[in-house]
Amino acid sequence: MAVSTRRLQKELVEIQKQGTPVGITLLSADDFQTWLFTVQVLGDTIYSGELFALKFRFDGQYPIQPPAVQFVVDEKYQAPVHPHVYSNGHICASILGNEWSPVLSVIAVCVTIQSMLASCKKKERPPDNERYVKHAPENPKKTQFVYHDDTV
Amino acid sequence: MQQDIEHISGIFGVEPDIASLLLRYMNWNKERLIEKYMDNAHAVSTAAGIVPPEKSPEPSCSQIGPRRSSRLGISKPSKSKASERSPPAGEPFVCPICFDDTQQETLALACGHLFCRACWGAYVSSKVRTEAESWITCMAEGCALVAPDSFVRTALGDDAQTWARFQELVVRHFVSCMPNLKYCPYPSCSYTVSCPAAASKSALATIVPTVRCGASGAHVFCFGCAIETDHRPVICAVAKMWLQKCRDDSETANWIKSNTKECSKCQSTIEKNGGCNHMTCKKCKYEFCWVCMGPWSEHGTAWYSCNRYDEKASVDARDAQSKSRASLERYLHYYNRWANHEQSARLSAELYAKTEQKMEEMQLASALSWIEVQFMRKAVDESVRCRGTLKWTYSMAYYLEKGNEKELFEDNQRDLERAVEELSELIESPIDPEVIMSLRQKVTDKTVYVQKRNEIMLEDTARGFLEGRWTWNVDVEGFEKD
């Protein structure tokens, strides 16, 4: 069995056994290619009351290489308005790129993104949102993000 | 590279592997490393990812991974490097990455983050192969420890190809850090060229470091910049400026010149695509006459004919206009000549083929042997080379300040150009069996002459740089006016 499948299987069992952290629920994990989660930012934040969906896509390289993670943008869900989130759902976060570590997990990514939203003080799009969204590749992993700001 | 590693290893009393990491961290700057290391060896080692920071939090495995109770303490880095540890008895080791408990072989860096050998192998191989990274940090989240060569080798096991790639990456890093070394830019050429004379930036203001790599005589490039041909006699900064200008301007400039005028108030370029002479600038709303370029207010009711050529305002407007046109004109003068030689160089392959054919014909028509007709080939070689020189002299002349020096420069240029044209004509002339011998003599003589003119051109320009004879009409890097 491929390492990625075994690893995801294990992560899934773990999720079913221990449940997910507060604010995060598993929406679907029917195969080992795409998983969906919903994320809610708890407490008194600018996103209170909003519900977002995160889509994970895995290839055979997982967990050596990071999964492709983005917010779902459809009739039901919108991407949060955040300086690191583009309106097409792509996320500029270093742990999904060069700071990815194979010991990170799907849940760890969810938690990181949840806290990224929680610590945000001002709702705004990235400054180059329009330009990026116009030319962005379908898969956010194909984008070479420059991580210029780690304060938010 | 090996020498530096051994040197550092000897001075600091550390293993070559560690010395290599230290040097790589410092971008192979040995002096700086020695200075810093003597100052605070521990800080440097920590920053270079050789020893874990003190009081590091307990190695944190991922949240869903099994927490390991055994403390894999901070032992001496040089000893624990790449040492393979077996998990404590009684508790089967489960790798937190692949969750495989059948893997019994584990590896860890000095930080003690233990993972199975297969995962390390996949990780290192992915770093090396897909990311071309030779600075491989520990797989644990936020851990900055770096894998030394021996560890990489162990992790890769018998994957010799990736190991070779890793070593190549380290060498590439070394070469890129050394100002006197450069890789040959020709495709799939792996040679390195050393050019100590061009190692400093200031040297590039006086010399054009054209180098040829050892792999092939055709691999000629400039050591000082990214231009992959011989751009003598002009120095890198000027050549670069010229190429940039050509990229930005040439095609557009031609069109602008023939189709537009500038608004005499805001200098926006305007294309008149129909209508009467009463123009209103879209940008600044200035109203003017297309014919005389003067303000429309002075035109009164003479709607369709302009008879106000001599009015002061329109004279001024035309002056400004012609000034900007003149600079465009000047640029195009140099550009067209430059482009012409560029074009000829591009056609050189064709010329070589044609010449080859001619040489065969010549053999049939006369009693000359193959060796004896080689003079044609030599002539073509020389003319191609000279056209390369000529091409760049135009970029240089464009930026040269007017004066005696420039005139001398252009004299040399003219002599060379004339000689090259004459030679080209001889090469292309039809073969007449009667006069082959005299043609041969003429071509040979001309080739020698052209070669000499080219040398004069190059040498004189180079000398001019050394003597500081050239002055520019723009700011050139390395020639800051004081």
From TrEMBL, chain A:
PANTHER family with a match to the protein in the record: UBIQUITIN-CONJUGATING ENZYME E2
Pfam family membership, one: UQ_con
Protein name, entry field: UBC-like protein
Keywords: Ubl conjugation pathway
All residue ranges annotated as the UBC core domain in the record: 3-152
Gene3D superfamilies: Ubiquitin Conjugating Enzyme (3.10.110.10)
Highest taxon, organism lineage: Eukaryota
TrEMBL record, chain B:
A GO term, aspect molecular function: zinc ion binding
Metal-binding in keyword set: yes
Keyword line: Metal-binding, Repeat, Transferase, Ubl conjugation pathway, Zinc, Zinc-finger
Documented EC number(s): 2.3.2.31
CDD domains per record: BRcat_RBR_ANKIB1, Rcat_RBR_HHARI-like
Pfam families, sorted: Ariadne (PF19422), IBR (PF01485), IBR_1 (PF22191), UBA_ARI1 (PF21235), zf-RING_UBOX (PF13445)
Region of interest called Disordered, as start-end residue ranges on this chain: 48-89
GO biological process: protein ubiquitination
SMART domains the UniProt entry points to: IBR, RING
Top EC group: transferase
Known catalytic reactions: [E2 ubiquitin-conjugating enzyme]-S-ubiquitinyl-L-cysteine + [acceptor protein]-L-lysine = [E2 ubiquitin-conjugating enzyme]-L-cysteine + [acceptor protein]-N(6)-ubiquitinyl-L-lysine
Top-rank taxon: Eukaryota
Annotated ranges, domain RING-type: 91-310, 95-138
Keyword Zinc tagged: yes
InterPro entries, sorted: Ariadne, ARIH1-like_UBL, E3_UB_ligase_RBR, IBR_dom, TRIAD_supradom, Znf-RING_euk, Znf_RING, Znf_RING/FYVE/PHD
Protein name per UniProt: RBR-type E3 ubiquitin transferase
